[in-house]
Amino acid sequence: MRVDRSVRVLRPNSLSPIVLTCEHASRALPRGMTPRGRAERAVLVSHWGWDIGAWDLTRALSRRLQAAAVGGGWSRLVVDLNRRIGDPTLIRPEAEGVVLSWNARVTPAEIERRALAFHVPYHAAINLMVIRRIARGVRPVLFAVHSFTPLYDGRHRDFDVGVLFDRCRSGAIRLAEGLKKSGLRVRYNEPYSGLAGMMYAIHRHGTHHGLPCLELEVNQDLLAGRGAGHGRKGPRGGIEQIAAAVAGALEPLVAAAAAARSVVGPASTSRRRR
C-alpha cells in the first residue's frame, strides 16, 4: 500500500509490536528533477543517493516479523527524512564534489515546499502507525533500517553491522548479542552515533511517545552477499540471510514489547479537574 508517492507502507493493518522504518529507501527523483550528465547520475545511484539494500532488507524483515514498515519514496538527495528541518544537510547542494543541479539554487520557499510535500507525509505515516498501536494497548519498538558504504573518505569500515542507540542501551545490547550469535561483527554507535543525534527520525517519534527506538546500520557488502572472506568465519550475507539473523536477534525485544501493554481508558474520576 502507498499513502502517496513520497511514502512506502507495508502491512499497514498490522498491530505488530515493532514498527520498521527506512528513511533512505529510494534513489528516485520526483518529476522535474533530472540528473544532468554522468557524474550526477553516478552520485544518485551511489550511497549518497540512498541506502543500498536497506529497503530490500526492510521488506524481508516485514515479511518475517509480520511487521508494519514505512519507507521514503524519494532519494535522500531530494530531502533527507533522517534530518530535522533546518539541518544544513537536509537538502545537499553537492555530493562527492559534484554539484547537484536540482539542488543548486534551492530557495527558502522551495525548502518549505519539499518539507511539506515529502518530509511531513513520511513522519505523519510513522506517527499514524505509533498512535494506532498505543490506542490499542500496544507499545511498539521503533526500528530503523539503514546501510553504510564499506569504504568512506578513504577509510575501510571493517565490520558488518552497527547498532545505534541513545536511551535504549539495554535493548541495543540484547540486539547486538543476538546478532553476534549469527557470526556478525557488531559495533555500537558506528559508523554513526545515536548519542550524537544521528537517528533523528525514530528518535523524534520515540521520544515524543516514550517508546524504545534502535537503528541498524548494515554493511552494503554484506547485503550484496560479499560478507565472508579474508580468512574470517561468518555469514556470506545476502538479504535473506541477514534478514533471518536480524529477525532472530529482534525476537526478545519484540516479545518484551508485546508484553508491555499500555493503559488506555477514560481518565480517573479521582483526578482533579482544572
Task: Describe how the helices and strands are arranged.
Blueprint: E1 7-10, E2 18-22, H1 37-45, H2 54-65, E3 68-72, E4 94-95, E5 98-99, H3 108-135, E6 141-148, E7 151-152, E8 155-156, E9 161-164, H4 169-180, E10 186-188, H5 200-209, E11 213-219, H6 220-223, H7 239-259
Parallel strand pairs: 2-3, 2-6, 6-11, 9-10
Antiparallel strand pairs: 1-3, 4-5, 7-8, 9-11
Helix pairs in contact: 2-7, 4-7
The CATH H-level superfamily is Zn-dependent exopeptidases
Strand content: 15-25%
CATH architecture descriptor text? 3-Layer(aba) Sandwich
Coarse structural class: alpha/beta
| Succession of helices and strands | EEHHEEEHEEEEHEHEHH
Instruction: Kindly report the average pLDDT value.
Output: 90
* Measured distance between first and last alpha carbons: 43 Å
Low-pLDDT runs: 228-232, 263-274
What can you tell me about this protein's structure?
By secondary structure, the chain is an alpha/beta fold. The chain has one domain: Aminopeptidase (3-Layer(aba) Sandwich), CATH 3.40.630. The chain has helices spanning 37-45, 54-65, 108-135, 169-180, 200-209, 220-223, 239-259; strands at 7-10, 18-22, 68-72, 94-95, 98-99, 141-148, 151-152, 155-156, 161-164, 186-188, 213-219. The chain has a 7-stranded mixed β-sheet with strand order 1-3-2-6-11-9-10, with helices on both faces.
Keywords summarizing the entry:
single chain, 274 residues, alpha/beta, Aminopeptidase, two-stranded antiparallel ribbon, 11 strands, 35% helix, 16% strand
Could you give a short description of this structure?
The chain is an alpha/beta fold and 274 residues long. 35% of the residues lie in helices and 16% in strands.
